[in-house]
Amino acid sequence: MQEEDKLPFTDHLEELRTRLIRCFIAIAIGAAAAYGFKEVIFTILTQPLIDVLPKGDAIIFTGLPEAFFTYLKVSLLAGLLLASPVIIFEIWMFIAPGLYKREKRMMAPAILLSVVFFTGGAVFGYFFVFPFGFKFFLGFASESLRALPTMREYISFASKLLMAFGLAFELPIFITILAAMGLVTPAFLRKNRKFAVVFFFIFGAILTPPDVVTQILLATPMILLYELGIFGAMTFGRRPLGSSDDEEGDDDTGEEPDDEVATKKDAEG
């Protein structure tokens, strides 16, 4: 009896293993394809810095294998981006069987929108924040102090910033999911709006160079995204957990999925 109980769990782990292998294969194929265009991708990533470098300066590498490993990292990042549709599909196919109909209806657009918002955040950081930030950092150069950015340092710094901006732009999705779970309400979000605004400016001060322009460039879209999150909470939110008339509360108590319930009702009828 115990062995029978363990079988579904082992099958679950086997499915997870298979889907992870598919994801890694997709990333490897994407990285191999991107490696053929490594110089082009690297040029695109470094263009915001190249545009503000003094005339005659360039990005350098200080170690013999540095350029090779930097190109590998760039190819891996591009491969991850190319493989993202496969990764999203595999994640969706893994979790979909355990979701209720209502959760499935919400999960699919949430995943797609999260990709759109993440990409939008990275694009915003690349085109609007990078030029101001790099110009600020290079402003410390003088006749006796010269900036010599290396390939490895730039790619590491730029990838972290792009990731941070992408995650920051997931704010409305995160708020909407919390509201759909009943953990926050539109009234709560509106009441604490002033604290959120202060947090966004602090977050901008930590993440961006310490000048007012770049802080405002990050804080302003986050304020707008917060307002968008309130709209999402109003549209998809539910009553807080513990509410007596929580019509969707059965989803959290182990109730069978909607399709099975409907099948049973038809059989009883």
Automatic annotation (TrEMBL):
Keywords: Cell membrane, Membrane, Protein transport, Translocation, Transmembrane, Transmembrane helix, Transport. The keyword Transcription does not apply. Residues 244-260 have a biased composition (Acidic residues). The chain crosses the membrane at residues 20-37, 74-95, 107-134, 154-183, 195-210. Pfam families: TatC. It is a multi-pass membrane protein. Residues 241-269 are annotated as: Disordered. It is found in: Cell membrane; Membrane. InterPro entries: TatC. Forms a complex with TatA. Part of the twin-arginine translocation (Tat) system that transports large folded proteins containing a characteristic twin-arginine motif in their signal peptide across membranes. HAMAP family: TatC (MF_00902). Belongs to the TatC family. This is Sec-independent protein translocase protein TatC. It comes from Desulfoluna limicola.
